[in-house]
Amino acid sequence: MINYLEPKNNTPRLSLEKFDAHKGHMQDWIREMIQHDKSKGIESIQRSNDFFMDRKETYARLEGLGLPTVPHACTSLTDFLKRPKQYLADFKGLQVRLVVEPNTRKEELPTVRLTNPQKEQIGVKLRETIPNEARAHYSVLIKEFIPFAYQATIMVNKDQSIDLEATSPTSKSIQLNGEPEYQVRRDPMLFTYRYNFEDPALRQLLYRTILKVPHVGSGRERIFTPGYYELIIAKRSEDTPFQVFFDDYRTGKGFSR
Prior knowledge:
The protein is an alpha+beta fold. Helices cover 25% and strands 30% of the residues.
């Protein structure tokens, strides 16, 4: 079954009902939500074993926060191989990306990514790549493939500092000389934003992207939901505005300082 949340004009916000039920200050709620660890940055988190991903749970977290996602479906590899055409039929007319990845860290298993694959070739490719005895340990993510203008990560820390790092498809690497291609930092004391680039239109776009992160309040009183976010900024066509689609959200040890 295909699932998605379309981007909306209104900014998703923290559940005030959930906060009001907590007997304490918002900062107490934030402290309980995440664990403190200054030793990891965004890059090290991406390489960490802690970054193991359960796609179904990931999208459930995103949808629970009201964050926009691309149309997607999650299933086991075993079930997908039984009826690939049935799963792909829900994405008729869309470009499709398949991500077939292990759901265990017990052994080194390959991840397979296919973009707009021929239906009759999918089963052959997966059976050639993934050993029969390992297929029970795999899950499949089918999602609409939208060529992105920017790929970004956002780290919201419990002190309300924010780190956004973004790259474009034309970049030679995600990081240039150890620095992100595009970087935005929010100062937790002054609540001002610093950029490592000058383009005013891009500054506005990335600032508006940060505002897509769930929050309460406005202006200097704005409090964002701490955690680690992955997203893309894309246009479905040249004559449509940029949209933000979230791909991951996490909290816990190592994801905020």
